[in-house]
Amino acid sequence: MRQSFVALCWLFVSALTLAACAGGGGGGTSSAGGTTAGPATQLVVSQQPSGAVPAAAFLTQPRVTIRDAGGLTVASDNSTQVTAAITAATGTSGASLGGTLTATALNGVATFTDLSINLAGTGYTLTFTSTPALTAATSAAFDCNAAAAGGGKAPFVPAAPAGTATYYVDDAAGANDSNNGLTPATAWRTLQKAANTAVAGNIVEVLDGTYARFTINGKNGTAGNPIVFRALGTGAIINSGTNSTTSPDNRDSIKITFSSYIVIHGLRTQNSYRAGCRVDYSPNVTVQGCVFANGGTWGCFTDYSDDCHMLGNECFGSQREHGIYHSNGGDRAIIAGNYCHNNAAGGIQINADPQSIVGGGGTHEDGICEQCIVERNWCVDNGGGSAAVPGASPAVAGGGACLNFASIRNCDIRNNLLRTQYNQSGIVLWDDGNAQGGVGPGYGSMNNRVYHNTVTLGATVTRHCFVLSNGSTGNTIRNNVCVAGGARNF
Fold first, then answer.
1. Superfamily name and number for 32-144
2. The whole model's pTM is what?
3. pLDDT by residue (tens digit) across 63-84?
4. CA–CA distance, 391 with 318 (Å, rounded to integer)
């Protein structure tokens, strides 16, 4: 009982001390440095709004501070109500501000939490007024940019890279590679012009339209300033335009070769001769929010490239092989949030290709893929061969696996949703064997973690949910759900 009484006394004394620090008692106001603020007279925007896309809450919400005539914060103000509105004649005519438009001050600061604008536009500002009436405040100008949706039906599409465009590419009348490319009105016509010109830190905005294939060759961004190709909408399409020519190599719709720190967001390819996108000897490349449809061999293909990220892409209709194929020893790949469906062979394959070791060029050529993450992907109805892909030619047998891994080490395969009606395995770990046998147990897939995946094989499927072979040891398989038709789980 005595302890409780002492505690109550301590709380009472502490409360008095806090009240004295906050304003010296009796409704006073205060500021830093011990100077007492005078009566509230004005509003000041202390945190500017930013990160606006239509109909979504700003990434950075505004804060408005209550201040006296000398600019001191009136920290004792817990009652002034501040209301936000779009400033007249700014942004897009007819736009409206959504969310909770009035915020009550707490310790002299009114914080907004869910403001949004319904229409894209440039040069918006917000005006803040109050009750009781104080001198109003206006925010700095900001833009509300239409989000680059991309990704088709992928389950987890990353947001478009932020930043103001450096160059523009369009297929509208007037677009021409002889323009300066600096505004939508003076846009270039081809993606190749942009690829030849862009340097570290540049953002190439690609407007909806139909484009020819392009190659990014020998271009290097940095971790903080990558070279970005960003689709403005969902209709920036590279429709075929590729062929079997290898000198120069025109087989792939988007080719990134001997480059680094490149980001491709939201572009779409159709009917590529080989791959929708190829990443060749190019580390630190991110391909996200794209759609790769009906590639002759693959949707997205990488070779000899470390630290590649393939995020939130939709890959379907590959006529010979896989939706996503990460190959030739590239380490630390992240393949996440993609939707790979109705491809002739595998949904996603990582094959370190120990049968094709180059050697002498680093770990990306050593025939082992290490420390990769494959998570939250959907792989559905792959493995039906070319007969299951409309318009595919020539005839190609199906099979393979929803997730197919050869010679991978210390990788995480988790939270993937895998389903097929075709005669295909679920998750396979092996050693890049061929019809004549494997390359040896030394190249088996080892020490990987396979957690929380769901594998559903159709009623007529006679393969297995999990296959581990040819030296694939030390793997941990835990908390997976397996629904097999005619097959055993292992």
1. Velvet domain (2.60.40.3960)
2. 0.70
3. 999 999 999 999 999 999 999 9
4. 11
